[in-house]
Structures are given as structure tokens and as C-alpha cells.
Write a structure and sequence with these properties.
180 residues; alpha/beta; 4 helices; four-stranded parallel sheet; single chain; globular
Length: 180
């Protein structure tokens, strides 16, 4: 009989493997203490925080974590509601018949990531933390940007920026961000 893992167990294996692969790559290049910048876009924001907190600091130095295109979840939020993550009206037919079935796995993974980062393990970034939003992004607005500060161990290392564009604004702003 096949053993079936829970979603949380699969997540943990995946995160351990990703972290180990990154560390192994750095060691294979004989580049201990390599400096990296982790970027998490939209639902990948919590993933970047999770990986940053897991990397072996004797192997990789995380110079910065950059997040964009996502409102940070706070402890008082209820992650079990898929509409919390919706970028369109959750009562619309398109949402219920098309988008929700496609995003169900992503939303479930994101909810579990939230539980791990915010609730259970209270993951925090110990390095420069940059949060970006687009001036036309309905999913992540400027007034919510300072909430990311709570993900830093040192709030003085937190900086927020607004750039031109909608939800995928980073696709057109990579050069500007790299020059910061």
C-alpha cells in the first residue's frame, strides 16, 4: 500500500529540497558565503521569506529579500478564505467556474505557507527587506506596503517603493530595481 503524505508534509519536503539544492549549487561552485537576493512575486513573496529563513548562513548570505505584488497577510487575517487572495470579484461566474479551480492548489499552498511563516514558525527576514507595489496594481496598494515591516527582525532594514505599472510591473522595471 502506498503511503500518502499530507499537503503539509509534501510542502516541508519540497522546501527542504529547494533549500538544499540552492546550498548544494553554491558549494559546487566553491563559493561559500555567496551573497544572494531572493525575489518573491505575488504568491511567491512568502516563499522567498521561507527560503531566506531556512538557508544555512555559513553557506549563503542573503543580502536582501524583495517582495512585490502582494498584500502581506497579518496574524489577525483568516487565511482559509480563498477570497482573501482573490484579485477579482469572488462572486463572479468566472471566479467560481474558471479561476478558482485553476488556482485551488496555489491558494491552498499559499494558505499553508501563511500558516508556517506567520503563525507556527513566525519566520522573519534578518536582512535588507524591500517591498514594491505598482501604482496601478489593484491586488497590492501603497497603503498596505508598510505592513511588510512586521516580517523584518530589524524594521530599520525595511524599505518600500512604488513603481509604475499593474500587477506584473516588475517585468518592465527590472533594470530600475537592479540599479537601486
Amino acid at each position: 500500500e502506498e503511503e500518502h503524505l499530507t499537503n503539509k508534509e509534501e510542502d516541508e519536503i519540497f522546501l527542504r529540497n529547494v533549500t538544499k539544492e540552492i546550498e548544494n549549487y553554491v558549494v559546487s561552485k566553491n563559493n561559500n558565503n555567496a551573497k544572494v537576493i531572493l525575489v518573491g512575486l505575488s504568491m511567491g513573496a512568502l516563499f522567498a521569506i521561507e527560503i531566506a529563513s531556512r538557508l544555512d548562513k555559513n553557506v549563503i548570505v542573503v543580502d536582501a529579500v524583495l517582495v512585490a505584488g502582494r498584500t502581506p497577510v497579518q496574524e489577525e487575517d483568516q487565511p482559509s478564505s480563498a477570497s482573501k487572495y482573490a484579485m477579482i470579484d469572488s462572486d463572479s461566474k468566472a471566479w467560481t467556474t474558471h479561476f478558482l479551480p485553476l488556482l485551488k492548489t496555489d491558494l491552498s499552498t499559499d494558505c499553508r505557507m501563511y500558516e508556517r511563516v506567520m503563525i507556527r514558525e513566525k519566520r522573519r527576514v534578518e536582512t535588507l527587506f524591500l517591498a514594491f507595489c505598482g501604482d496601478e496594481d489593484d491586488a497590492f496598494v501603497w497603503k498596505d506596503l508598510p505592513q511588510w515591516r512586521s516580517y523584518c527582525t530589524n524594521p530599520k532594514l525595511f524599505y518600500g517603493f512604488m513603481l509604475q505599472g499593474k500587477h506584473s510591473f516588475l517585468m518592465n522595471q527590472a533594470d530600475e530595481i537592479r540599479d537601486m
